[in-house]
Each structure stands twice: as structure tokens, then as C-alpha cells.
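Changelog excerpt

This revision adds worked examples to the README so contributors can see how folded entries look when concatenated. The first example is reproduced verbatim below.
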Amino acid sequence: MKNYFIKEGYKHKDSARTAVDSGSQYWSKYRLSSSKYYQHHVYKLAQELIIENKLNSCVDVGCGSGYKLVNLISPFCKDTTGIDQPFIIERCKKVYGENNINWLSEDFENAKIGTNKKFDLIICSDVIEHLLDPDILLNYLKSISHKDSIIIISTPERDILHGSANNSATNVEHIREWNQTELTAYIESSGFNIKGIHLLRPLKFHLNRLYFSHLKRFYKRFNYCMAIVCQPSRITKN
């Protein structure tokens, strides 16, 4: 099995619980509610890049419930697209409509190019750790990039979250997890130039049980969301 630059001895899973398998069961009321808070700081970073670089188009690859795309990105970017599994995309269309955001369905395990459009900013927040073959995802990101596109890829930083002795993902929805050194090497080897690495809080502060439960579990390892900002050094042709 390919190790994707992860340390020797690490045990990659051959399956995981995913939204593809469970659809409406995966997107429970609790998950939909908590999706408003997780990866908030990744989207704030994306928002800052849009404003700073005057970017005109953005795609969220793995947009989930669409809440953060609608509230943190769309007001600052006139051309916005959300891509995810069919069940949640249909919900996004019903909840948010299709006037301001283009919603597209895609299976990232078998990604086929559903659009010929190239985007100025590509967000891929906490998707890569769920996939059996992340090469497919990275090639997909290149296929929707132009030479000046900015790409944000985020995922948990394994060593900060679990310690350096960890040898397998404990989350039932994750196939594998990387540390910063490993993921940087993997992304660079896949045809991207690293422009910045950020360690961010995974959760927005809010006054409910979710936040304080998270704080209790991870108070010593709070900045473990790893966001890598990169640009394509090699573009995949459609």
C-alpha cells in the first residue's frame, strides 16, 4: 500500500464510515448544527485571502452543509461554488437556493471532472483524511486550478492531536492522518508549491456544550487544525 509520505509502521485503514455510505444518517441534526463551528478559522483564512488578493471566484471542495461557504465566503466573492456528495448538495440547494452559489455533486473517491471552470481560490477543508486514494483529490484540485490559483488544504495535525507515537487514525471516519512534515512533503511531491502553513483552532468559540466538551478533551492541543496554502506547480489537463 502506498504510504503517502506517512511514517513507516503507520496503519492505513482500508475503509471508513463516510457520507457516501450513510447519506441522511451521516448528516444528522447534530452534525449539521456542529458544522457551523468546525473549520471556522480555515474559512476566515480563506476570506482574508479573497480580500487581500481581490479574488473573484472560489470553490469549496467538500462544502458540507454549506453554512460557512454562504456566510463567510459568498459575501466577499461574487462567483462561488460548493461541491460535495449528492445528499448534502441537494440539501444546500433547498436551504440556500441556487441564485448566488453554484452547487455541484461529486464523489471524491472517483472524482470525474464535473466542471471546466478554473477558480481563483480553492478550499478543501478536512476532506483528504477521509479518502482511500487522496491522489485522486489532489489531481482534481489541479484540474480546477489555473497557474495563479490559491489552494487551502486543511486536515488535523496528527502529532499535535494524538502524539508522535500514534500509528493509526482513531476517528472512525478517517482513513489516515498526517503530521505537518509528512503532509507538506506529500503535497509538494504531488505538484504544488507551498506558500504557507497555519496551525489553527478547529472550532469557533461559542456558548454551548459542543465547545466546552471539545475544550475539556483538547485543552492542551487546541491549535491542531493544519491549513496548508499552496499553488499548483503542475496543472492537470482535462
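The second example, added in the same revision:
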Amino acid sequence: MRKYTLTENLISGALGVAIGLPLAIYGANHRTPPDIVQVEPVIYEEIATYNEEAEAIPEVYIMTEEDIAEEAYYDDLELLAMLVHAEAGNQDMIGRRLVAEVVLNRVDSDDFPDTIHEVIYQPNQFSPVGNGALDRAIPTEGDYEAVRLAIEDRLDRAILYFTGGGYGKYGTPAYQHGDHYFCTE
């Protein structure tokens, strides 16, 4: 086996760095992105606490039907706060509450859908749904507060409709507050 001199080793090393480093940098900057695969969520009915080797496996949170219903309820409340912001973000607290109350009163009515989500997305009911303002709405603490107050104690359980700029063609005119005209059944 031939032994290399110090000079040969240095030259060989320098050539290796001169050739290898640019290739390594090029390779690091030109990788193909990994394929992204969308997966469906898995709902586990049971969880094992330990595997065969008796090693702990990560705890997985299992959502019960009650948990799912509670999460859907809070999602609906957030959606309602978004609608309040889109419809009455420029109104005082009473004006915001009244908008929230229209939705809640409809949920309670036999003439409308049974959930906040279904009431809000019922066709041709709220202009922010149709014009995209609902999707862009970022509710404030005041909007959430209006929803909370409307849930706790409604100011008017009879109002089912509101419009801006005058009374609409549905319902019986009741009163104006801020920019909105409210109507009962």
C-alpha cells in the first residue's frame, strides 16, 4: 500500500473540499420538495396506554360526542361574533347585541333553522355572507361581549329581522337603533 506525502494529502484534501463543498451546497439548495398527502382524521375509540415493550406511548385526546357538540357551539359563537362585527361593528353595544339577538331569536323560532350556523348561512338573509365581509371579519372583544350579553339576557326576544336604511319588506316594523331598522314577526 502506497503512502502519500504530506503535500499530496493536502492537495487531495483541498481538491475534495473544492469539489465537494459546492456540490453539497448545490444539493442542499436544490432538493425536490416532499410530496404532501392529505390524510383524513382518525377517531380512536380506545387507546392503549402501553405497547408490547411496556413503553409509554403518547397520550391521545379522544373527543366524546359532548366535546364535539361543545366545540361546534363555540365555533357557532365565534361565527356569530364575526357576523356582529360585519353587520354592526360600527354600532354601539346595544346595536351589536340586537344583531346577535336577531340570530338567536331565529334559532329559537320554529320558522328558522335550529343552529346559529344554519341561520347565518340561510340563503339571502345576511348581506355579509353574500358579499364576503363575513369571511374577512375579525371580531373584537366588544363583538364577543355583545354575543355574551345577548345569550345571557336578551333585550328583545321578538325581533327577527333588521335592515339598514329603512324598514325591510319582512316582519312588522318595531324600531330603529343606530343604522338598523328592526322588525318583529
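Reviewer comment on example two: The chain is about 50% helix and 10% strand. The beta strands are 159-164, 172-177, 180-184.
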